[in-house]
Specification:
This protein has three helices and five strands. By secondary structure, it is α+β, with helices and mostly antiparallel strands. A five-stranded antiparallel β-sheet has the order 1-2-3-5-4, with helices on one face. A hairpin with a 3-residue loop joins strand 1 and strand 2. The longest helix is centred in the middle third of the chain and has 22 residues. It is globular, with a radius of gyration of 17 Å.
């Protein structure tokens, strides 16, 4: 994995506005926020995409993400939020270290905007694909 801005923040080479830290996770304010309180939650384990994370690093993120989300909502007064996590350049990942965005959404429209273009669903193809995914998980 390349030396990213997040690895430099983890090592203390670049300052951040830290909101949470433990042995496995660091959370800090995004310096290019979509809304006030936009917070990044990153594992200290180096991994480019979430599928490359160890079970331990994934569990550590999962344990603190709800708690940090509640804290962001409590501190900002926002009543809604998005959690965004991108994997790979094609999926709009800009920093190649796993990170989760907690993005408060406000009545004034600030926060994450999403375009959603659902496709039709073929149940026969879906059954086949679900089987393939389940078989891959079983390996």
């Amino acid at each position: 994995m390349s030396d990213t801005i997040f690895s430099k923040i983890i090592r203390g080479e670049i300052p951040c506005h830290k909101v949470y830290e433990d042995a496995h996770v660091l959370a800090f304010l995004d310096v290019n926020p979509l809304s006030p309180g936009h917070t990044l939650v990153i594992p200290k384990e180096p991994a480019v995409t979430v599928d490359a994370l160890s079970d331990d690093a994934s569990a550590a993120i999962g344990r603190v993400l709800p708690r940090i989300s509640r804290a962001v909502l409590g501190a900002t007064g926002a009543s809604a939020f998005n959690i965004l996590q991108n994997n790979g350049a094609l999926a709009h990942q800009a920093v190649f270290h796993v990170h989760f965005h907690i993005i408060p959404k406000y009545d004034d429209g600030t926060g994450l905007g999403i375009g959603w273009k659902p496709q039709s669903f073929d149940h026969a193809a879906g059954k086949e694909l679900a089987g393939k995914i389940a078989a891959t998980l079983a390996k």
